[in-house]
Amino acid sequence: PPSYPATKGHSRRSPLRRMLSSSWHSDTRCGEVSVQGPPPSRSRSTHTDYNGGFVLPMALQLGTVLVGSPRQDGTISIVTTSAEADEPRRVQFPAPGPGSALSPGLPRWANYVKGVIQHYRGGPVPGFSAVMASDIPLGGGLSSSAALEVATYTFLQQLCPDDGDLVAKALACQKAEHTFAGMPCGIMDQFISVMGKEGHALLIDCRSLQTVAVPLADASLAVLITNSNVRHTLAGSEYPARRRHCERAAAALGKASLRDATLAELEEARSRLGDEVFRRARHVIGEIARTAQAAQALQHRDYRTFGRLMVESHNSLRDDYEVSCSELDELVAAALEVDGVYGSRMTGGGFGGCTVTLLEAGAADRAQQHIQEKYSGTATFYLTKPSGGAKALPL
Ligand code: ADP
Ligand code: MG
C-alpha cells in the first residue's frame, strides 16, 4: 500500500500493520475511532461498522449481570432492575419448543433477551429464572443493549453450552437486535462486548471480522466518558436512515460497501448523489481512514495524533453525518478547553448520549469540573479503563 512503508515479509509486521496493509490501499480511504463499551456492555455502533469499515472500541468498566438457574416447568421468567420507566420489570413466557418460535412483543426490553434465546446456537434453551442488574445508562450510547444481549448469551452458555465460537456469538447477538428489537445495528457493540480485552482497544475490520488488540494501558492516560443525559427521539429513525443513505451511495458508486470507495471516486459522483448522500458517504469514507490512522497512532503512543483524529471524527459526525446535537457539541467543546485533553468526540449512534475524551490522567478532575461548569445540562462522568469482555462469574 502506498501509505505504508514497505516491509520485508510477514514475520516483521505487527498484526496491526498486517491487518491495515492487507485491507487498506490508499491514503484517501478511511475508518472510525470509537471508544466504548463495558464488560458485557459497550457503546452503540458508530456508523462505520455497517459500511464494512474499521472500528476501534474498548470495553468499559460498567456491565450487565444476569444471575439465574434452570427450572423444570418450561417457563422463562426474568426480572430486571433497570428497565425504562414506562415498562414492567418482570416478564414471563414459555421456552421455545421444537415447533414454537419466540416473537417480539412487550415489554420492549424483553425483546433483546427473546431474540438471543431464539438465535442461541446451543439450544434448545430450557426454562430458567433470572435476575438482571446493570450500571450502564439505558439508551446513552454505551450499548446497554449489546451488554444485555451478550450477558444473556453468556448466561445461556452456562445452561446449555454452545461450541464457544466468539465471532458466531457476537453475530447471533447482533441478529437478535436486528430481528427482535428492529434496530439494524452494525457489529461493533456486540463484538467488543464479547471480545473486549483489559488494557486494550480493539481494532475490528468489520468486513473480514478480524480483530487486533491495541494496547491502551498507559498509566499517564485516562478515558473520560461524559453522559449528556439527553436522548433525542430522532435517534431511532435516523440510524436506519443513515444506513440507507450509505447503501445508496455505495450502489451509485458500484461498490459492495463504502469500505471499497475512495474520496476521489465519491467526488466524481458528487452531482449524481445529491448533497445529503454525498456528505454521509464523505463522513464514512473519511472515518474509515481516520480509524486506521488512530489505531496506528495508539500503537505508537502518539496520543496527540489520536486526539486530533477524535476531534476530526466529531466534526465530521456533526457536519457531514449530522448525528450530533447541541449538547454533545457543548461537551466536546468544553473538554477541548481543558489543559491535558488530547481529544474528545461523541460516541454511539448520536442525538444525545455520551462523549468520550482522551486526556492525561492528572487532568481528569479539572476536566470534569470544567465540563460541568460549561455544560448547560447536568452531566454524569465515568472515568474508565479498557476492560475485558463478558464472562461467567462463579457464584
Ligand atoms: P444503548 O444500547 O445505547 O444503551 P439502545 O436504545 O440500543 O441504547 O438500548 C437501550 C434499551 O436496551 C433500553 O431501552 C432497554 O429496552 C434495553 N436494556 C438495556 N439494558 C437493560 C437492562 N439491564 N434491563 C432491561 N432493559 C435493558
Ligand atoms: Mg444499543
From TrEMBL:
GO terms for molecular function: ATP binding; galactokinase activity; galactose binding. The keyword Phosphoprotein applies. One of its GO terms (cellular component) is cytosol. Keywords: ATP-binding, Carbohydrate metabolism, Galactose metabolism, Kinase, Nucleotide-binding, Phosphoprotein, Transferase. Pathway: Carbohydrate metabolism; galactose metabolism. Residues 47-70 form the Galactokinase N-terminal domain. GO terms for biological process: galactitol metabolic process; galactose catabolic process via UDP-galactose, Leloir pathway; glycolytic process from galactose. It comes from the Eukaryota. Residues 295-376 form the GHMP kinase C-terminal domain. It catalyses: alpha-D-galactose + ATP = alpha-D-galactose 1-phosphate + ADP + H(+). Residues 111-197 form the GHMP kinase N-terminal domain. Its EC number is 2.7.1.6. It is an enzyme of class 2 (transferase). Homodimer. Belongs to the GHMP kinase family. GalK subfamily. Catalyzes the transfer of a phosphate from ATP to alpha-D-galactose and participates in the first committed step in the catabolism of galactose. This is Galactokinase. The gene is GALK1.
